[in-house]
């Protein structure tokens, strides 16, 4: 086989379909967020406003987090020195796990190198080792859950997005004696809609299923202490296994699950993606714990974040831009075509010094391509006014106005 020809042919097809991923190279500057320096290929760098960061609360540059990270590096160095089992468990790791268990009001927690790995490892391990396990997965679940479910080899049943009736139909048709897991998210990252967590858990439990909830886009941002939508909805105890990330609202990197002592010990003891990899650097764990403590005890951050999102949605709608319905801080603006979506993103960057990455298939279904805006507490009214007028200009230039309004 001509491997090179195969690879370049495949990449050419992605380009033709407008799906070839081009990374914007950014230099984050402490104290400047949401401004950052954008490095253009072959051109001079320029300062831009970032409107698509998942550092949702700007904790990635918060002095409390940076201080914790710097002092941990000073005291303990860079890498962890091994897997958790072989010399890589550190006091910062165990302290972080205790912090996470307390946040979610669970017996125990377990950290992984990313949220992706947490989902993949946990679902793969449970699906493979629970005898005859069936995994019930929301149709919009993230790639990391899908990967874990597929790799487990367990029977996979997909229920229509947030559709309790469909889930019940599937559960009712199954053998009552088989182990089951219902896996879903709280805030869906591309549409910004929210699952009815309590109702899904009640239904799952009626059919003897465990509940597995990904709160990656909610931890830090919802609930009195930032434990997520399950806390906001007062259903923390109905979620058997909660999964989250340290990389978004907490501004660092890493993922975790929190659950009963036996469940966590089971994954700790049997999950390949936990066992056979070097643990997170101690300084990352120290920074994440500091971030969680800060975010938990500063509810005004959440209030400001929600206010910024509501204001942005109102301003976009008032300007006639096709902002999609969203119940959360995620603000998608519909374009509906991959090429136009890329052009809109390029125009925002080239003409207006605004960075918003286009969201295309397979991240969202074809025909629903969009710009996904993520306001943070540090986006000001001025940033918003400038963004709205830039979007109006782009919509007019690309002839998107009528197209979008007709949708
Ligand atoms: N779950 C969801 C819903 C996500 O959107 C993502 C990544 N954006 C992940 C899990 C993976 O989290 P991480 O970035 O920490 O790997």
Automatic annotation (TrEMBL):
GO-annotated molecular function: 5-aminolevulinate synthase activity; pyridoxal phosphate binding
Origin: domain of life: Bacteria
Pathway involvement of the protein, from the record: Porphyrin-containing compound metabolism; protoporphyrin-IX biosynthesis; 5-aminolevulinate from glycine: step 1/1
Enzyme Commission number: 2.3.1.37
Gene Ontology BP annotations: protoporphyrinogen IX biosynthetic process
Species whose genome carries this gene: Enhydrobacter aerosaccus
Description of how the protein assembles with itself and partners: Homodimer.
PANTHER family the UniProt entry points to: 2-AMINO-3-KETOBUTYRATE COENZYME A LIGASE, MITOCHONDRIAL (PTHR13693:SF102), CLASS II AMINOTRANSFERASE/8-AMINO-7-OXONONANOATE SYNTHASE (PTHR13693)
InterPro entries listed in its UniProt record: 4pyrrol_synth_NH2levulA_synth, Aminotrans_II_pyridoxalP_BS, Aminotransferase_I/II_large, AON_synthase_class-II, PyrdxlP-dep_Trfase, PyrdxlP-dep_Trfase_major, PyrdxlP-dep_Trfase_small
Family the entry assigns: Belongs to the class-II pyridoxal-phosphate-dependent aminotransferase family.
Catalytic class of the enzyme: transferase
Entry keyword annotation includes Transferase: yes
Name of the protein described by the UniProt record: 5-aminolevulinate synthase
């Amino acid at each position: 086989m001509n491997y090179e020809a195969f690879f370049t042919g495949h990449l050419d097809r992605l380009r033709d379909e407008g799906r070839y991923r081009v990374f914007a190279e950014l230099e984050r500057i402490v104290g400047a967020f949401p401004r950052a320096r954008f490095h253009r290929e072959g051109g001079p760098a320029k300062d831009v406003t970032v409107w698509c960061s998942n550092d949702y609360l700007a904790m990635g540059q918060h002095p409390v987090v940076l201080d914790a990270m710097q002092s941990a590096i000073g005291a303990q160095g860079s890498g962890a020195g091994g897997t958790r089992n072989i010399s890589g468990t550190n006091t910062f790791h165990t302290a972080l796990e205790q912090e996470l268990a307390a946040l979610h009001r669970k017996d125990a927690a377990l950290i992984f190198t990313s949220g992706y790995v947490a989902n993949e490892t946990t679902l793969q391990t449970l699906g493979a080792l629970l005898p005859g396990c069936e995994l019930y997965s929301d149709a919009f679940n993230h790639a990391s859950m899908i990967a874990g479910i597929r790799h487990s080899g367990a029977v996979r049943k997909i229920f229509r997005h947030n559709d309790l009736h469909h889930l019940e139909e599937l559960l009712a048709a199954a053998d009552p004696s088989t182990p089951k897991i219902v896996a879903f998210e709280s805030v869906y990252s591309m549409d910004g809609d929210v699952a009815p967590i309590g109702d899904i858990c009640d239904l799952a439990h009626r059919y003897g299923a465990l509940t597995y909830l990904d709160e990656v886009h909610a931890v830090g941002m919802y609930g009195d202490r930032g434990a997520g939508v399950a806390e906001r909805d007062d259903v923390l105890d109905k979620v058997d296994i909660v999964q989250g990330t340290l990389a978004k609202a907490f501004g660092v990197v890493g993922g975790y699950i929190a659950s009963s002592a036996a469940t966590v010990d089971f994954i700790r003891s049997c999950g390949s993606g936990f066992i056979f990899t070097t643990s997170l650097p101690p300084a990352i764990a120290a920074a994440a714990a500091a971030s969680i403590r800060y975010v938990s005890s500063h509810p005004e951050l959440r209030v400001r974040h929600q206010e910024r999102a509501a204001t942005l949605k109102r301003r976009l709608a008032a300007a006639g831009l096709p902002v999609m319905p969203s119940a959360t801080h995620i603000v998608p603006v519909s374009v509906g075509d991959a090429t136009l979506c890329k052009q809109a993103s390029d125009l925002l960057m080239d003409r207006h010094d605004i960075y918003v990455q286009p969201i295309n298939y397979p991240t969202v279904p074809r025909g629903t391509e969009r710009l996904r805006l993520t306001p943070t507490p540090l986006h000001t009214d001025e940033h918003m006014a400038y963004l709205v007028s830039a979007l109006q200009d782009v919509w007019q230039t690309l002839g998107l106005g009528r197209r979008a309004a007709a949708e």
